[in-house]
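User: Design a sequence. Structure:
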């Protein structure tokens, strides 16, 4: 029996074992396999290991998407997550190329994937509070939001959770250094049913402007001299 003689359900099951590139390559072989590739049921879960993967035309976005993960663990994450004023010209140029990649993708998800249930972002240093706010408003069924090492996330995201995260059951904001204890406490008070985790977030040193840092160091030196 030839593969194209299998019914749609069997073909979808076979495709489910393939990565995105393999699915795309197989879809190029005939119209029937292209139809399988374009079936929304195949795209209920998407995982990405790099922002570059978001630009590849090897997947579909639509209402069928339920689980989305963008986890960037490369050493380059450290470059994009340090304060802008500390970066050299090479680092700034590198980060500029990725600045809007994840944000634009998530805005697309917000507009096209209203049934999203779970979102995991790790190492996405350019994601902002406004982006998460828009997604919470557009995906009212979101049950799990896990953010790790997303340095531009602040208490505004926590406030958005209390206002628009009615379905949220799990919230992780690990290694998000601009989250505060006060913001976490508001979530605990207003959303007591949410399983909240914030490893190393409120206990880390938040971003500070160069002049503020200089003044703190200057004050410390005076104390040492005294």
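Assistant: Done.
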């Amino acid at each position: 029996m030839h593969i194209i003689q299998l019914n749609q359900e069997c073909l979808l099951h076979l495709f489910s074992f393939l990565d995105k590139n393999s699915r795309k390559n197989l879809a190029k072989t005939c119209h029937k396999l292209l139809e399988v590739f374009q079936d929304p049921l195949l795209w209920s879960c998407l995982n990405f290991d790099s922002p570059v993967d978001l630009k590849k035309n090897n997947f579909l976005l639509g209402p069928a998407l339920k689980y989305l993960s963008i986890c960037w663990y490369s050493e380059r994450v450290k470059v994009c997550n340090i304060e802008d004023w500390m970066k050299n010209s090479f680092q700034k140029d590198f980060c500029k190329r990725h600045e809007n990649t994840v944000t634009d993708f998530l805005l697309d998800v917000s507009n096209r994937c209203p049934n999203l249930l779970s979102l995991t972002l790790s190492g996405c240093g350019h994601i902002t509070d406004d982006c998460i706010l828009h997604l919470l408003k557009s995906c009212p069924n979101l049950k799990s939001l896990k953010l790790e090492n997303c340095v531009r996330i602040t208490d505004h995201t926590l406030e958005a959770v209390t206002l628009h995260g009615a379905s949220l059951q799990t919230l992780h904001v690990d290694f998000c250094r601009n989250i505060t204890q006060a913001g976490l406490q508001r979530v605990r008070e207003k959303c007591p049913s949410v399983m909240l985790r914030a490893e190393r977030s409120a206990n880390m040193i938040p971003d500070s402007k160069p002049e503020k840092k200089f003044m703190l160091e200057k004050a410390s030196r005076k104390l040492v001299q005294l």
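The CA atoms of residues 9 and 36 lie 9 Å apart. Residues 210-225 form the longest helix (16 residues).
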